[in-house]
Amino acid sequence: MASKKKAARAKAESAAETARPYVQRLIEDEELRDNLREAYEAGRDAYSRASGSKPAELLDDKKLQKDLKTASDSLRAASDALRHPEKQKSSHGFAKLVLLVLVGAILALALSEDLRKAVLDQLFGAEEEFEYTSATAPAGDQTATTT
Fold first, then answer.
1. 94 and 118 part of one domain
2. Global pTM?
3. What domain range includes position 99?
4. Is 94 part of a structural domain of the chain?
5. Each residue of 87-141: pLDDT tens digit?
6. Which of 17, 22, 75, 91 is the most core-located residue (most Cβ within 10 A)?
7. For 5-37, how does the pLDDT look when each residue is reduced to its tens digit (9 = 90+)?
8. Is 145 domain-assigned?
9. Sign (positive/negative) of CA torsion 13, 18, 20, 23?
């Protein structure tokens, strides 16, 4: 008798371990709870509507069909959320923010010559200004002095 109790306890503990991630998701995910609540309410409305009608009337009842569709869609969304938990939204949002800043910086550099010069000066140092003076006389001056 004691071994049957131990086996039943082990089976119950195994079932609890299997259900633990689903219960955790249900506790943490507000959208999942809303989907389940909406499915329950739509199913309850559909049941109460169908229980008072004749079978021939059920096929033409648009409100019943709408309630059943709502319940079905909500249950599908809830089961998808349980099977495929979403990734961390914060890292995805951060990646979008970094991409937006990078695109904005590229556009600013492409459109503003002053900004480009300032960035190049910061990266490679200020450009040295110099004047070029020729050590030789221009060709036009030599012919004028020899005549």
1. yes
2. 0.48
3. 87-129
4. yes
5. 545 557 788 888 888 888 888 878 888 888 888 888 887 777 767 787 887 666 5
6. 75
7. 888 888 888 888 888 888 888 888 888 889 889
8. no
9. negative
